[in-house]
Amino acid sequence: MILNIKRFNQNSATKIEKFEVASNNETILNTLIKVKQTQDASLTFRCGCGSGVCGSCAIRVNGTEKLACKTTLRDNDLIEPLNYTTVVKDLVVDLNFEKDILSKPKAYLQEYKEEVITPEHEQIIDRQSNCILCQSCYSSCPVLEVNKDFLGPYALSRVLRYVNDKKEHQEKEKIDLIQTNGIWDCTLCGNCTMVCPQQIDPKMDIMNLRMKSIQWGYTDPNVMNSNTGVDFGFNPNNF
Ligand code: SF4
Ligand code: SF4
Ligand code: FES
Known about the structure:
The chain is of the alpha+beta class. The protein folds into two domains: 2-94, Beta-grasp domain (Ubiquitin-like (UB roll)), CATH 3.10.20; 97-238, Alpha-helical ferredoxin (Fumarate Reductase Iron-sulfur Protein, Chain B, domain 2). 31% of the residues lie in helices and 15% in strands. The chain has nine helices and seven strands; from the N terminus they run E-E-H-E-E-E-E-E-H-H-H-H-H-H-H-H. The chain has helices at 28-38, 97-103, 119-129, 136-140, 143-146, 153-163, 171-177, 191-195, 202-215; strands at residues 2-9, 12-20, 58-61, 64-67, 77-80, 86-89, 92-94. The strands form two sheets. A five-stranded mixed β-sheet has the order 2-1-5-3-4. A two-stranded antiparallel ribbon has the order 6-7. Helix 3 (119-129) runs antiparallel to helix 6 and helix 6 packs across helix 9 (202-215). The longest helix is centred in the last third of the chain and has 14 residues, at 202-215. The chain is elongated, with a radius of gyration of 20 Å. Bound molecules: iron/sulfur cluster (2 copies) and FE2/S2 (inorganic) cluster (FES). One iron/sulfur cluster binds next to helix 8 and helix 9. Residues 47-50, 52-57, 67, 69 line the site of FE2/S2 (inorganic) cluster.
């Protein structure tokens, strides 16, 4: 079985390297570990839990974002690092930008207020709380190709999580902060939803945030406001 890996190191050009590996229904992560142990100790990749919990092993397999520890290797697979990141070496990317895109829209609990939290309320924020920050959705998003300042799917899902959190006192500020390079820049293509290993639905979360923004008085900047009556964008009546 052949495994193709896109290799990068600061001292040489990017290249695709082929490795011959045993065909035994292994995950990509286990195969990478074996290649490193037996063929090329310089092969560099990131992993932690080995069980789909830490999110550190996300890569692209034949162009689609996957967790290496949860994906079975197939013959001739091409393994590449995530998109829109700086590659440090081979499959390891620099994730320092993550702190920035979560802080810009204040995707965290800003001002805590005492509240009785019921199981029903926990349910509302449960799905987005399961994000493991694997960056798969971010890497799959076509908007980042043209707008590097776009907040991206997981940051926006996390904003919704805190906007819906009864303990948060500053939900309006979060809504204000996602109007530029945020919810209205999304094309609703759904790539993020398809690749998320945690079954989070950032596309739906973004649509919910659009609806909440309209309730707070914002309008979709993409909707043509003219007498033609032609509407090119989001319609709150769809919700
Ligand atoms: S639905 Fe929006 S956020 Fe998700 S990948 Fe498409 S453009 Fe990006
Ligand atoms: S939303 Fe899903 S794909 Fe995106 S970072 Fe979180 S777990 Fe990963
Ligand atoms: S190693 Fe933790 S998710 Fe894959």
